[in-house]
């Protein structure tokens, strides 16, 4: 099928289609909810759909993150998708793992240097089935109540450890991210007594579905079940607020074990690919692939 640029009249079915694939579409859904089509915001989307059928979406943010949701796309369609972003800055790919690898292959970007390049196991949970562990002595508080300097340090360390960010950039990035967390009220700190011991948050939300992310416990406090308790308390709160389902991706075996202990079930895989430096998908490269 031929890709065509999405129009305002497509938004309703696109959102319905993405909700059917919510596990790997949360960033797409959240960005569309926040910015719609045609915004010049960095994370606003330019979106294409598969002509004549409602079975595929291909998108790129203004800052250059590629985000497809097209599980039935064939080789020709992936080559054509690479052509859609010819000449654009590309900073990475966030997508269901197989789709991400297909795009990178046919865009000849599979060997581009990366800050992070991994496929993470996905998990999903009906919040009616949440299994809350013993949380005696622990309290979840809005992130704004925690010392900002500590939260920025944690986020900086998270960026280096989990996202592979260079040390020189991680601090500045963390400052900006924490400002966003506070403004949107999307993150929380877990306290034990008077001390913050872990943090977690919502990466994206679409209707009754929330995507959990930013879970971090400093190394000296690990192996105590604190991250698990933080996520459990946050999910219980979100369920009371109306959320019905949670999805997430595990960055480690330890994280996966913690999530399954809360009732999460394995559900697909997600590729997190962030380039070490932006690249431009050249028309010549696309033509060479076709």
UniProtKB/TrEMBL annotation:
Transmembrane segments: none annotated. The keyword Transferase applies. One of its GO terms (molecular function) is acyltransferase activity, transferring groups other than amino-acyl groups. Keywords: Transferase. InterPro entries: Acyl_CoA_acyltransferase, GNAT_dom. Residues 138-290 form the N-acetyltransferase domain. It holds the Pfam family Acetyltransf_1. Gene3D superfamilies: 3.40.630.30. Coiled coil: none annotated. This is Acetyltransferase (GNAT) domain-containing protein. It comes from Epibacterium ulvae.
